Amino acid sequence: MFNKLKQFQDVRSRAKQMQKDLDEVQIEGEAGWGKVKVTMNGNQRVVKFEFADEVMNDKAKLEGYAKEAVNNAMEKLQKEMVTKMKEMGGLDLAQDIQGMMGQK
Q1: Where are the alpha helices (DSSP H) in the chain?
Q2: Distance CA 94, CA 74 (A)
Q3: What gap in Å lies between CA 90 and CA 92, rounded to an integer?
Q4: What is the pLDDT of residue 99?
Q5: What is the domain range of residue 74?
Q6: Residue (of 14, 80, 11, 91) closest to 42 by Cα position
Q7: CB 62 within 8 A of CB 56
Q8: How many CA within 13 A on the CB side of residue 71?
Q9: Which of 64, 69, 71, 86 could form a disulfide with 38 if both were Cys (CB 3.0 to 4.6 A apart)?
Q10: How far apart are CA 67 and CA 51, in angstroms?
Q11: CA distance 69 to 36
């Protein structure tokens, strides 16, 4: 029982560290030939939006570009996450959790 608790604490600690590391990853997505840019971190949080003055007067265009920029950033982020998860042992972490739950 104590061993399982120790394992759980170790996995939890690794997961928290992974989340902290992912917070430092920053990906930029763009749309409208760079007129709208969004920066997201590895935890899929929007950090910053940038809008060119020329799109500020066209609400429909701005909305479309914003959606496009977020989707572009998410695609880039997903690719980056695969690499980062491998580097951080994320796949091992998932296996450790499954093993603790008896689901190997």
Answers
A1: 2-23, 59-88, 90-100
A2: 22
A3: 5
A4: 62
A5: 2-100
A6: 80
A7: yes
A8: 8
A9: 69
A10: 13
A11: 7
Q: Is 54 helix (H, G, I), strand (E, B) or coil?
A: helix
Number of domains into which the chain is organized: 1
In the numeric block, which tokens belong to residue 64? Answer: 């479309």
Sequential pLDDT tens for the chain (104 residues): 677 777 778 878 877 887 888 888 899 999 999 999 999 998 899 999 999 999 999 999 999 999 999 999 999 998 888 887 777 665 565 565 556 556 54
Give the pair of three-digit tokens for residue 42. Answer: 């590895």
The two tokens of residue 56 are: 């500020």
CATH number for 53: 3.30.1310.10
The phi-psi region of residue 78 (left if phi > 0; otherwise alpha if psi is between -120 and 50; otherwise beta) is alpha
